[in-house]
Amino acid sequence: MNIVAIVQARMGSTRLPGKVMMKINHMPMIGLLFERLSKSKKITKIVLATSTSVNNNSLEQYINSLNYTVYRGDESNVLDRYYQAAKQENADVVVRITGDCPLIDSILIDEVIGGFINYNADYASNREPPTYPDGLDVEVISIKACLLYTSPSPRDS
Questions:
Q1: pLDDT at site 103
Q2: CA dist., res. 140 & res. 133, Å (int)
Q3: Residues 82, 105, 110: CA angle, nearest 5 degrees
Q4: pTM for the whole thing?
Q5: Which long-range CB contacts under 8 A does 28-35 form with residues at least 24 apart?
């Protein structure tokens, strides 16, 4: 099973532009996040999903320098960026992570993935009920469920 963690991040945050590249202990925050994600025993691959905006060129270069893959897509369609990144990596399962969560816990991620697998679910999360602090949110989604949410409805045709 190809379990791909897709991290959504971009440099154009409206509240704090460039926050994902701000340093924590001399390391860009996004680098710390990827380092912590890499400790997961269940994730097959980690990918950055960002937009095609030129503002994200330095972010892409940094992630590439860490030997991770980057998918760049539409600035305003985050869901499509996730889906296209998953498709690019032939993911069976997507682990959704936001780029401003540098303290993400790989053990917690593996627990949510484990529940997803054990229950043969299409979606699993630790968000409902909200019991974990912000920054520890994990969502695990089957590619089948991703297709349902990214496919145009008959009304959109």
A1: 93
A2: 18
A3: 70
A4: 0.91
A5: 28/62, 29/99, 29/100, 29/102, 30/59, 30/62, 30/63, 30/99, 30/102, 31/62, 31/66, 32/102, 33/7, 33/97, 33/99, 33/101, 33/102, 33/104, 34/7, 34/63, 34/66, 34/68
